[in-house]
Amino acid sequence: MAQTNTGLKHLSNALATPDQLSNSSSSIDGVPTDLETSIRCAGAQLTQAAGVLLHLSQDIIAQAIVIFTRFWLGVDGGSLRIYSAKDVSAASLYLTAKLSFQPTSPRSILNVYNLLLSQDVSPLSFVNPRGAPKQPPAADTYVLSEGGYQAGRLVLLRVESVILRTLGFDTHVALPHTIALTYLQTLGVSRPAVSRRVLEHLNAALLSPQLLYVTHQPNALAVAAIYLATREEGVKLVDGEWWEVFDVDREELGFLVVGMRSTEGFMRKETELWKNKAIPMVIDEVDAEVERRRMMDEGE
Amino acid sequence: MSAAKSRWADNDPETEAIIAQRKREKEEKRRTKAEKQRQLEEASKAPAPIEPADADQGVNGEQGPPKKRRRLSNDPDASSAAGEVSTSAELKKQSSLLRFPVGEWGPCRHVDNFERLNHIEEGSYGWVSRARDITTGEIVALKKLKIENSPDGFPVTGLREIQTLLEARHQNVVYLREVVMGNKMDDVFLVMDFLEHDLKTLLDDMREPFLPSEIKTLLLQVVGGLEFLHSQWIMHRDLKTSNLLMNNRGEIKIADFGMARYYGDPPPKLTQLVVTLWYRAPELLLGADKYGTEIDMWSIGCIFGELLTKEPLLQGKNEVDQVSKIFALTGPPNQQIWPGFRSLPNAKSLRLPQTSASPAGNPPLLPRSRFPYLTNAGLNLLSTLLALNPASRPTAQQCLAHPYFREDPRPKPKEMFPTFPSKAGMEKRRRHHTPEAPKRGQDAPELDFAGVFGGAAGGDTGEAGAGFSLRLG
């Protein structure tokens, strides 16, 4: 039995336990759940943006986001009041790239994060609510000083160790993207628009507040994305319960379809909620936000 | 039927029905609870509103974002809406779906959970000791990773070792149980199954080499493990007898993944500073930066030869000497048997003797005199494994299917293997005389192979290749 399972390791993932999903280190430290969700989602977006700027391929970025997501779960996970989301994002990306065919240097990582976290020039709305400047910004607004680099490098490498310890050195992340393309071929769907839409759904699901990537196996994510994409593009698939061929039952598919579809609404709500404010990405800002909310509650 | 019943059982059919009914209700209740419908627990018949009974409904109906949860039971709607037929059909279908092995993750334990017993050896990437798990009493091997203020954070070799070992679950690959931490940030230990022997120490202590039937059993296991690794896109890159562990039940396991890594198609650029010198393939020695699983097959050939003669096959003193030892055994390369070898970086300085009569066959058979007791099939296998041209070497899969393993004497059953006193279990192992795997981060040496066939440039060349006409320039 164990023998038949061994070959499946690279198609499957470790999943979060119910305990890890219902408790988190941050909530024990007094971070409200909705704030934690906002920060986690912003951290995932930050990782994605940094990966794009570093010219890393999407599979490395997606794996980094999954590692980032896993890190915060459970009482043994990291707390937002002990570790800055931006540091964990950077270290996840650095670690994942190191193990891939496209390693990147601490300096490149720190340069990119310095730009993305600059409140004057960052293109990310949750860092810089005014949006990216129209004119190319002056270099001194985002260039990292040598001292800043040395300090940042120490933090990056320390947080990398912390992530490894927290995850028990299990850095394996299987992704649904290639699986989905194989399934599409199996189903005889060759329209590029469908494939593109499938990948869009899978990448959007990385930001899902339901943490789909740490609660479902990649084959199920792939099937749900195909289900949605073919419907949206009006492509007819075979009759019958084709998802069972890919070992997904209807209930799981239904849940994932709803989850993936709700991601867009969630993101809109988040944008609205943090319209003129920055989402706290470092410990001090989280502390201040928690304190601010406590004062508001007491004031009422 | 009634005789089989316990006499305490209530025979009244009505009571039975009630009991069954209660049971069903209880079951239903438990399920609903699991569905996180705590507030609806009393009204146990109510359907769960969040979960769409039909996937179509989920797409078209506007649903609020569902709460995260794991699937714990069947959809309660199914039984009430579609009746019992669909439920039973669903159950039948469900059993046919593949369920992936679900792993979990958790933080590392502390090394204090283990009591260190004795030191075993120092490899190129860490110190290994025998230890006892304090809670379970099991004997394990504890390997400390070397992390010396690496400038790039946690060393990638250590990460790869852990990653590949965690993925390579096979009966012929050493089992990594967990990773534990010490007090300092960079104290990292791998906890692995303990095996009594390594093949190198065993061979050193044996008076006679293994029997042919035993060699086949050993080789089949090693190549079987390697075939699995290659099928998982893992290259070992440091196969040698001291990295093959053996227990007293005749089982052999591949260990020390300090050099292992994933490869891809197309292959990524790789360092040629891999594999301990004596087991290093000629394309690596000639500086190829594109190589593949064939380098592991070369090492298998070296191990095969070592099992036959009890001595390492190609004991070069340095890279240049290694190349000359290889060519002395296999004959020098030429364009027929290894097209394109000239374009390898270090082949430029290589001066080859002009041989008119090259040995027949492609790849040519190794000299029979070196392996007097080997059958023809065995010599054929060894010659292909030690083919200079990587493309001529068999894959692990092809190797397993070789006639050598099917001819008499057949592989000896593992259970029939002799047992040996364990050095690792009792006392400190003596240091091997095998050179170590190359250190990572060194620059690949620019090698001058002008002296391979006896020229002065290569320095200490040891014994010169026999029987070649030298062309000194």
Automatic annotation (TrEMBL), chain A:
Q: Which GO terms describe its molecular function?
A: cyclin-dependent protein serine/threonine kinase regulator activity
Which biological process, per GO, is one annotated for this protein?
regulation of transcription by RNA polymerase II
Which residues, if any, are the signal sequence? none
**Highest taxon of the source?**
Eukaryota
User: PANTHER family, alphabetically?
Assistant: CYCLIN (PTHR10026)
Return the protein name: Cyclin-L2
The organism encoding this protein is Penicillium subrubescens
UniProtKB/TrEMBL annotation, chain B:
Give one GO molecular function term. Answer: ATP binding
Q: Which GO terms describe its cellular component?
A: nucleus
In the record, biological process GO terms are: regulation of mitotic cell cycle
Reactions accelerated catalytically: L-seryl-[protein] + ATP = O-phospho-L-seryl-[protein] + ADP + H(+); L-threonyl-[protein] + ATP = O-phospho-L-threonyl-[protein] + ADP + H(+)
| InterPro entries attached to this UniProt entry | CDK (IPR050108), CDK11/PITSLRE_STKc (IPR045267), Kinase-like_dom_sf (IPR011009), Prot_kinase_dom (IPR000719), Ser/Thr_kinase_AS (IPR008271)
Q: What enzyme category does the UniProt record give?
A: transferase
Q: Which UniProt keywords apply?
A: ATP-binding, Kinase, Nucleotide-binding, Serine/threonine-protein kinase, Transferase
Q: What is this protein called?
A: cyclin-dependent kinase
Task: Name the source organism.
Answer: Penicillium subrubescens
